[in-house]
Amino acid sequence: MTLPYYTTDNFRPRTSAGYLLKRVYRLVHMGIEGSWEEGALSFTQWVVLAYLCSGTVSTAAELSREIGHDAGAMTRIIDQLEARGMLTRERDTEDRRIVKLLIAAEGRTALDTLTPRVMDFWNDLFSGFDAAEIDAFIRMLTALQLRLDPDAGGR
Amino acid sequence: MTLPYYTTDNFRPRTSAGYLLKRVYRLVHMGIEGSWEEGALSFTQWVVLAYLCSGTVSTAAELSREIGHDAGAMTRIIDQLEARGMLTRERDTEDRRIVKLLIAAEGRTALDTLTPRVMDFWNDLFSGFDAAEIDAFIRMLTALQLRLDPDAGGR
DNA sequence: ACATATTATTTGCCTGAGCAATCATTGCTT
DNA sequence: AAGCAATGATTGCTCAGGCAAATAATATGT
Asked: Nearest CA of chain A to the CA of B24: how many Å?
């Protein structure tokens, strides 16, 4: 049994984990997307394409579960990507509820351009820290995620 | 000069820091707000009140800078809090551009109820980790924030 | 003093995400 | 086989947040 981390004395908005999580995420998100040229994909669209390309998911439902994104909103993101020729929809023949998503050539070239930029952004941000620190940071985030959403690991 | 952390081989959406940051923040946000009863403040409204109560900020502009929240949206949050009697606006007499925000008794009682719940949520989430791990996690978040927004430290 | 730049606040507009409802399809139960 | 629950995809609705413009007041430079 460990002691409580926060007490009335040491709990301050500025140094609280919630404030920092939100702030860092937002700065990263805007930092990455802001460096892309006008007319490029949005960060969220990139995430969807990257998941699709990784081969771990192939439908809208899987994507929304995996990313933790609303299914309705996912439909619209896919609409946009389809309209831009980044992917195609194909009704599954065995289970006709399912629409399989197939990344198109256009989508692959977009990924080839954008993914290295995302990696560079993170590598730049992480430069100066040693790998053990970063590993610990990511392990902590993973552990917190798992505790907040026990299903997350089983997927 | 350190080696790049991410390479084409090890960079996967699922284990990337961006995915984890977003997911953990969202789960925390919804976990906290979801545990409050119907009709309570929103999490964002609580954050604003908590900052105000801490005494480190006293105007809308300071709040939006501090929290990293849009100034226009901040006006509306303050509108809501004012409408619910949680705070009052008072035009500054020396610099008439400024509207000083004063937390009301109603606001203090709301904070007295909600703030311990937020602390409990975090303490619960952090239980099982030792303080050194949590410290390292928060130090890392702080360092990343500072690197992403160098002005953040000076405030 | 006067013109210009900056800051604080507010408003309108637009986009994107969450929620609930709907429809089609499949799986399960009896 | 029929009924019912569960799943996948989609749509309309609503709301919150980001952006840009407008307004008012103050600071700065010449």
From this structure: 5
pTM over 0.85: yes
Residue from A2, A3, A5, A29 whose CB has the most chain B CBs within 10 Å, to mutate: A5
Q: What is the pLDDT of residues B76-104, one digit of tens each?
A: 999 999 999 999 999 999 999 999 999 99
- CA gap B108, B19 in Å, rounded: 36
Alpha carbons A88 and A108: distance in angstroms, whole number: 12
- Whether the CB of B67 is less than 7 Å away from nucleic strand C comes out as no
Residue B28: which of A50, A115, A148 has the nearest Cβ? A148
Query: Hey, are the CB atoms on B2 and A127 less than 8 Å from each other?
Result: yes
What is the signed CA dihedral for A134, B135, A148, A99, rounded to 10 degrees?
-20
List the structure tokens of B142: 């702080």
**Does the CB of A61 fall within 7 Å of any strand D atom?**
yes
**pLDDT tens figures, A11-49:** 988 888 988 999 999 999 989 998 888 788 999 999 999
Give the whole-angstrom CA distance, residue B155 versus residue B136.
22
Q: Which of A130-144, B30-44, B97-111 has the lowest mean pLDDT?
A: B30-44
Task: Yes or no: say if A14 and B57 are a contact pair by the CB < 8 Å rule.
Answer: no
Proximity of residue B91 CB to strand C below 7 A: no
> Tokens 């937020």 identify what position?
B118
pLDDT recorded at residue A154: 54
State which residue of chain B sits closest to A145, comparing Cα positions: B24
